[in-house]
Each structure stands twice: as C-alpha cells, then as structure tokens.
Specification:
The chain has about 240 residues and is of the alpha/beta class. The radius of gyration is 16 Å and the shape is globular. The longest helix has 16 residues. About 35% of the residues lie in helices and about 20% in strands. A hairpin with a 5-residue loop joins strand 1 and strand 2.
C-alpha cells in the first residue's frame, strides 16, 4: 500500500485563483505541514502520520517535487529545478516575503474555518521553514513552528541572518509575538544552513521565540535526522497553543 493511500487528496485554490494539491488526514486541531526538499517524501509522510496519531487534522500542501519519491540526488535535483523557475518561491531574496505565503495563509484560514478552535499550527522545514513564520501574519495561525529554517540560503552575512519577511510582515509578526503568539524553532546547533536566523528571531521576538538547540551538526530535526526532543517539543507546543 502506498504511504498516501490513507490520505485524502484535494486541491486548495485561493482568491487569486492559485491552486496546489493537498493531502489531508486526521481529526482534531488543524496543522498545515509544509514539506522540505525534495517534497512529500516517505519521511515527511511518516512524521505527518505521527501528528495525526497525536490527535490533529493534518493538511500537507504539495508545492514541489513528486509525492512519495524517496530522498536522493534525482528527487533533490527535480525539486530544485522546479523551485528555480517558480515565481512563488525564492532561494536567495532577502528582506522579502515569499510569494507563496499568501496561498499558504489562505489554506490556513480554510482549515481553521473547518476545524475551529483558537487557530491552526503551521510547520515548515528546511527550505520552507520560514514559510511558517510568514503564515503567522494571518490570525488563523496560532502555532508557527520553524524546523531548521534555511532560506534565503545563507550566502553572506545578510542572508544568513534574514527571516525572509518584508518589513511590513515583520512588523505584524513582532506585534503578534508581543500579544502572546509564541514561535517554536528547532535546529541542530552546528547546522550551517540555518545561519544566524535564531539569533535574529531571539532579538526580534524576545521571549516569544522558543528555541530548541540540539547538539550536533545534523539538519532535518523531524525527519531524516529526527531527534526525539524536537518531536516532543512540537507536540507539546501544539497541545498548548491549539487545544485552548
């Protein structure tokens, strides 16, 4: 049986007419889980199933790659080629919010309207890690999680510290954090892809930024290099923020 056979495939189209496939499963408070490069891999699906078992309605948008394809040179190359020509996503732009954030916010609003509660969770990983922070601009997102946020790719000091947010969106994120919306961040301390973003988040959000610094120099905190402390922190964060 394919890993996604128990998931319901659909599509979300926003007000601008932009659409992407989605996969949905579970019951309970909502979580938008945004896959990492190279796509909705077997490891991402297994982690998503853990969130379902923990009592969440999980929606996975498919933004690039091929669902269920294993992680490897071919699948990574395919995903990078799609990203490079996409107008919705950028690997290098600093001080700008990724355009796909608007579509992801629309998806979060739709899920929140469906499941109710104080809001939904948003979890991005690696290339999409910062997308969850951009989604926080919308009040429907009550629990943003940044797992090893790696864009813009840390080429130079400015990009290494950048949050991939426009100044206006950063102002909204600061205001929501000051009003009590916490942000959870996960990384391995030696992960160079994260750059200096955790220092930027601590400076900008203060105590509202909850950082989990894991020992070592691995990368994927919840999938390929899964660390139980990271997985436990996410479940505890969602339980506190989404169950009222």
């Amino acid at each position: 049986m394919a890993l996604l056979d128990t998931w319901t495939r659909g599509e979300h189209v926003d007000a601008a007419g932009t659409g992407h496939p989605t996969y949905r499963k579970g019951e309970g408070p909502g979580v938008v889980l945004i896959h990492e490069i190279p796509g909705i891999s077997p490891e991402v699906i297994r982690y998503a199933d853990e969130l379902v078992v923990a009592g969440h309605t999980v929606v996975m948008p498919e933004l690039f790659g091929r669902a269920e394809a294993p992680v490897g040179p071919a699948s990574v190359a395919r995903a990078m080629a799609q990203i490079c020509i996409s107008r919705e996503m950028s690997m290098l732009a600093a001080g700008e919010t990724t355009p796909v954030a608007g579509w992801l916010r629309s998806l979060a609003r739709a899920l929140h309207a469906d499941v109710g509660g104080p809001g939904v969770g948003a979890l991005g990983m690696c290339f999409t890690g910062g997308f969850a922070l951009a989604m926080m601009v919308d009040d429907a997102v009550a629990a943003p999680v940044l797992a090893q946020p790696s864009t813009p790719f840390p080429l130079g000091r400015r990009r290494a510290a950048d949050l991939q947010l426009s100044p206006a969106d950063l102002d909204v994120v600061r205001s929501r954090a000051a009003a009590g919306c916490q942000v959870l961040g996960l990384r391995y301390r030696g992960d160079r892809m994260v750059g200096r973003r955790f220092d930027t988040l601590t400076r900008e959000l203060g105590d509202a930024f909850l950082r989990v610094d894991l020992p070592g120099s691995k990368h994927s905190t919840l999938t390929l290099h899964r660390h139980q402390d990271a997985a436990d922190a996410v479940l505890a964060f969602f339980a506190e923020r989404l169950r009222g």
